[in-house]
Amino acid sequence: MDRFDAVIVGGGSAGLAALMELSKLGIQAVLLESGKPIGSKSVTGGILYSKNYPNGKVYNVEDIYPDFLDEAPVERRITRYYLNALSGSKVYTVDLSEAHEYRTNFAYSVLMSRLNKWFAARAEEEAAKMGGGIIEGVHVRDIVWMDDGRGSRNSIIVTDELEEFGARAIIAADGVNSEVALISNARGKFEPEALYQGVKCIVRLPEDVMDERFNISSDEGVAHLFAGDISKGHNGGGFLYTNRDTLSVGLVYHLDSLLKSPIEPYNLLNEFLTIPVVTNYIVDEVAVPKELDRTLPKEEQLRIRFGLSRLLKQYEELRYTYYSKHARLDAIRRGLYSNEDEIKTRLEEVRGRLEREYGVTFAKNYVEMEYSCKLVPDGKRAMMGKPYKNNILFIGDAAGKGIFLGTRIEGINIGIDDAARAARAVAMAKKMNNFSEDYMGRYYTQLVEESPYTDDIRRIDFEYMKIFVRACGNIPLEPFPLFLRLAFMLIQKTAVQELAAAIARMMAQSTLLKIIESNDAYVRIPMEVARKVGSEVKPIAEVRPLSIDERIARLKIREDEVPHIRIKDPRSRFIKAMVHLCPTRCYMMEASEEMEGKEEVGKGEGVKTEARLKAVVSNVILQHEGCIECGTCSGETEWRHTRGEKGIVYEYG
Amino acid sequence: MDDDDGEGVINAAVMVKLEPDLSEGNVSYNPDGTLNRSQTKNILGPHSAIACRAAMYAKVCYDAWVGACSMGPPTAEIALKDAMVICCADELHLYSDRIFAGADTLATAETIKHGIMKMGRRIDLVFSGHRAVDGETGQTGPQTAWKLGFNFIGNVIEYSIDLRSRMINARRKVDLPGLYTIIEDVECPLPALIALDPSYRDNYRKVSERLRYARLEKEARKRAEDYKSYLRIWSAKDLGVDVRYIGLAGSPTIVYKVEKIPKAKASRRAKVVDPNNVEELREIGNLILNIALGER
Which of A55, A322, B36, B279 is the most buried if burial means most Cβ atoms within 10 Å? Predict the structure, then answer.
């Protein structure tokens, strides 16, 4: 049987960082990932931060991958950060760039599926030097422990695809819906209170248009957060980040808030996309083909269809080349065009042909590329106190990590920090030849405790809050509850700032959280503020968001005949909520008739049994084929990841 | 070449063939239905590729040394290069000489036998494809085994080697059309020649095998970029073959009749339509439109 010093379960950004670090430390490590290619199941909002702390070291992405800043396929460096309070078409924007820059080396918008492929190439190269590597398309089904008779326990990893093999240390990086955590009994499933559900769509927008619209240079990026009446009263908010030539637009809600009054996440997203301020960011010129004249001979209809689709494709390519500095220069360098004017002439020519020959008109709409959904663990409620079990160390989402405090949103960087610490713990365990819970597990916990992130997850950082409150200097305080109004007033006055912070520090964390994460803070206050001081935004166009069916049709899902989710109780309140909350509508309500007792009617040979209709009940049924593995329904189902190579394949992520 | 004849080491050879690419759209026919060789692209034969996969399996699981060999014109080095990408061959041998031309399966087997004997190692295992797509007889493999005096196992779908006892375990699939399919497990001592069934699947079930496979795959791509430095071209003289047994002279086969080449199994059926015939065009228009509009 094969046996390895370290086995990493899960090939997300945390798992890959662990592989990279273990290999650098001279440990033979193997990473197992169920998706193929690696990265195909990774999703983020998302922004990747690199941070610095005066009181301790954090392991940043550039520490793990030294050529990260020069070569990684990141999108844009986020230099500006805004919070938008919304009420109807009114918006009030607060510039939080200073808060965003707080202890930040840099922050990039990223598309996880692409970035993880780059991470994987680096990590695999490093791992190969130690005889390790990455194995894609393998799903870990079970882990078995056996006493070796000398006090320590050997673990054997059971997968759907490979022969069993041994592992001395296991790093669980299998995400928020960690199966390893449940297999090993390290923790229960996360409670809805400790989870967020995020839905996102990738919107395409030519690079130069984006630069102009957001008033940025081609190397800069902007992040917008939104709060107010977008949520139908739920606790949560929206986001919009600029990527190179796409936008990440989405919503994040507390899952418990969604469970209280279930609502379809895709409908919320659609309403978000049609809010004037958001529409104005995402809108683009889209070619609208003329309705085909069905009275024409069918040959002619066909000729038009084929000719049109070819020309449209050409038009799109030309347009994205022309309106992108990078693509334009690249095309000229490759000799496809001699200069910019030539591209422009060609573009106009194709556009002219589309209009003349096919009656195409050009209208304002938006171009959606990919829809995705992910559960996010809320670090302050989900973080595992004991991030280890037997010889397993938990990192990143699997360990419930993440800093989410109002406008502060960090996750990837914390997973990477965890990964580096777990790798060090495994290296130490190997040196001491002790992979036990008491040694390796505790040592890892100690390393994690030393991380400034851990402190940040546990306690509200008042320095950050001060910057935040200062940034809100101009907003009217009337909508605020008395206590908050007082706090804001005090903090905004430099003289008593420290005093106010000191008072806040004395309050219990839970009391403060109740205020910060209240419905007031998420919904009512932003709405009031926008109504009072917001400026009216007129939509420059109307967009028609995609329906959920159109979105699912665009996703690449490798169907597995074996369902990976099983409903436990088809009538529970939770499962009924899933009919609304499943982002790809996998759950459906089905009415069925329930019969009551059999009664014998008649006598002798004419005995008949009759059943009486007791009630018409509604059962929830599941169609797992469209599942995108977010885990929203995992709370009350038997939930597993799909088998190797099956399930969702994200292109952007 | 180093002499690596120690116990537990497997030296393998894989015999491949340059064949016309008969996949749909790549093949060109003469008006009489025979193959137009000058217009058809040549590639590594699909059955040879399967043999290469089996050789890679030996390399991954048993750390075998693999030499790929082929008899053919100088252009056949492309087949060897393709083979190298699949099996990460350590050496490439091309037997190319005008005198080899016109060889039937028996004469080819004679040439390959000499080639394999001259690889500089004691070869334990030879892999061959099921048949060639342009020859169809499937005799070269077994005849080479006979000439080499090796055990022969045909239609192999899975195999394993016991390095200690130097035995090969093979699972073979025997199709009895209209009756049933027999799956046989056979065992024989090395040296042996195995011909792979088209349904051969390599199945790497161990983590270490997957890792090694990934590593060798990368290595193979690197090697193939510089395949010429691994390639040796042999003439009849180099091989020291008896000219009476090779080429046309050594071929007892009499070609009795040439059948038209069965066209590649196409995923679609074609019908020639006269562009001036409106009725026929309309019919096609309807067909495509129905599909395009989803009104099947």
Answer: A322
